[in-house]
Amino acid sequence: MDENEILAARFEENRTHLKAVAHRMLGSSNDAEDAVQEAWIRLCRSDSAAIDNLGGWLTTVVGRVCLDMLRVRRVRREEPLKTGAPEAPEPGPVPDPESGGDPEQQALTADSVGLALLVVLETLDPAERLAFVLHDMFAVPFDEIARIVDRTPAAARQLASRARRRVRGVAPEPGSGAVRRREVVDAFLAAARGGDFEALVAVLDPDVVSRSAGGPAETPVVVRGAENVARRAIMFAPYARSVRFALLDGAPAVLAAREGAGFSLMRFTVERGKVVELFVISDPAGLTGHDLVLLDE
Q: Is the pLDDT of residue 141 over 80?
């Protein structure tokens, strides 16, 4: 393997993270791909041997590219007939549940997968958006952010603080889709734990589908129909030691710790007040490529 191949391989190791950063910044999958590709071009033109921390260097480059794209986008918004809402967010990196972190930051990160937040981010100054996304969502230090926006670390911290105050106003209203989906998930869990078959069937769509993804060598399990899914849920519910609410790819999910140190992650697709699909992951390898955010209760 020559030097170019090694560099390409190292870049690919960082691609998922870079795509997540760019997507949070730009709200568009296509624009995020363009930003990541531009980072690769700049890497090829640079002296890669002099880069001590490739991941940090690439994050900085993507941040600068996104900042430029946001500034151009702002100018274009002043032109007529240039309207449109941001895309729904894509999967990003899987955060480390052991990393801890400030509760406020965790709550903000949890909201980061929502379309509502993307709409609010669109109203922020590009530098504010960059500071908030890089620091609060990806833990980039303010001294590094300061170099990207050409300001002091204190000024970069102030940018993130202003953005954070505006983002705090993004919360689901009672009766909103997010709240209703959570209520449906709560009803599902209560019925499964209590062994209430009828109540469980009541929150399931008659044509609900449950798909289970184990390890790479395991055959996926598909269960169809409300009664079949309800029986399976009641069967496995007693084995869960504890549960924690989460978001998986922006959808409500539950992480259940099982006896024997196993785990099960269930993602719920809720439509018209009913669960229409359950996606279950029972092997850490199955989390690759998914965006998991654990929520504080």
A: yes
